[in-house]
Design a protein that fits this description.
This protein is mainly β. It has a single domain, classed as Beta Barrel (OB fold (Dihydrolipoamide Acetyltransferase, E2P)), CATH 2.40.50. It is 11% helix and 49% strand. The protein contains two helices and eleven strands; from the N terminus they run βββββββββαββα. A hairpin with a 2-residue loop joins strand 1 and strand 2. It is globular, with a radius of gyration of 15 Å.
Length: 149
C-alpha cells in the first residue's frame, strides 16, 4: 500500500505532508505581515473571506530563509478546528510513496527541528522528510490564534 503525500520545497529540501492533513494548496495568495510577530509567523492571508495564519516553517527547521519567487505557494493544512497555511518555496505536487520506503525520522538535531519531523522516505534520488503537521498545529495553536475550542 502506498501513502499519498503533498510534496513541497523549503530551502531547496523536499518535505511531505499527508494528503489527509491538506485542505487546499494555493499560489498567488497575498500575505500581510504582522508587526512584531515571530519569524515563524509569515503573516495572515484572506482565504475565501476568512483570515488564515500563514506559517513559515524554515526558522523552526533551522533552514535558511531564501527569497520567495513566482513558484511560492501556500499549503493549507487542518487539524481538528485548527487551520493554517504553510509557506512553501515551491509546490512539487502529489506523490505516492510505498510504505516500505518510509522510515522514522532521525531523532538527532535540535529539539524544535526534530519534534515536527514524523518520517522520511527515499524518493527517486532525494530524501523526502514527512512533517508532523498535527503536532505542529496543536503545539503552536495558543501562540498564534488562541487555544483550540
Amino acid at each position: 500500500m502506498a501513502r499519498r503525500l503533498v510534496a513541497l520545497k523549503l530551502s531547496g529540501a523536499e518535505y511531505g505532508v499527508e494528503v489527509s492533513e491538506v485542505f487546499a494548496a494555493m499560489g498567488n495568495l497575498r500575505i500581510s505581515p504582522l508587526p512584531g510577530s515571530p519569524p515563524v509567523l509569515a503573516g495572515i492571508a484572506n482565504m475565501r473571506g476568512s483570515l488564515l495564519p500563514v506559517l513559515d516553517l524554515r526558522p523552526w527547521l533551522g533552514l535558511e530563509q531564501t527569497k520567495l519567487g513566482s513558484e511560492a505557494a501556500i499549503v493549507v493544512v487542518k487539524e481538528g478546528e485548527l487551520q493554517a497555511g504553510l509557506l512553501a518555496e515551491e509546490l512539487i505536487g502529489m506523490l505516492s510513496v510505498a510504505e516500505e520506503l518510509i522510515v522514522p525520522a532521525p531523532a538527532t538535531g535540535p529539539a524544535p527541528t526534530t519534534a515536527y519531523l514524523r518520517e522520511a522516505a527515499q524518493v527517486d534520488d532525494k530524501m523526502l522528510v514527512i512533517l508532523d503537521v498535527a503536532k505542529y498545529l496543536t503545539d503552536t495553536a495558543g501562540k498564534f490564534w488562541g487555544e483550540p475550542a
